[in-house]
Amino acid sequence: MTDTLPTDDWADRLRENREEKDRFFSEHPQSPIPPERREGFDGLAYFDPDPEYRVEATVTVFEDPDEIDFETSDGRTITYRRPFRFSFEIDGDSYELSGYRQEPSDPIFVPFRDKTTGQQSYKDGRYMELEPEEELSDGMTIEIDFNLAYSPFCAYSETFSCPLPPEENWLDTTIPAGERTPPL
């Protein structure tokens, strides 16, 4: 992608996005925060915005995607297709994440774990969703912004069932970007 925002504009948009999400979590009837805890909810915890965790990833497209069964937080399984793999570098080291969909029109689901998992971020991993403006093709590049990584709803309430990141999306590095351990 060549259409990235200048760092100041990007950071401002990120802060606005976080404020909007905090409002949703504290006020909306569909908030994952249980109603009895919303009054004391003071906003989500985030790592500071860091442009180093906006990475350019090279796309690999799988024409005949494998079906992957995900374990969920409540012990069930849910099936996704794996149509994409994203290769990128952080601090000079190479990594890969797979992107999943249940339906071809769905956003690309990128669940992951890293060395902050269970320490500084949610114990079962975090999610990102990618919604590229154009159809992805082999070899193109796309921006992955880990500053947008978020905790799944099951981090706030056991009434939600959440897919757990498969082992192929466990990163052997620290990603101090996005949401931190949920405040409860």
Automatic annotation (TrEMBL):
One of the Pfam families matching this protein, by short name: DUF1684
Q: Which domain of life is it from?
A: Archaea
User: Per the record, which residues fall in region Disordered?
Assistant: 1-48
Which residues fall in a compositionally biased region of kind Basic and acidic residues? 10-26
InterPro entries named among the record's database cross-references:
DUF1684
The protein, known as:
DUF1684 domain-containing protein
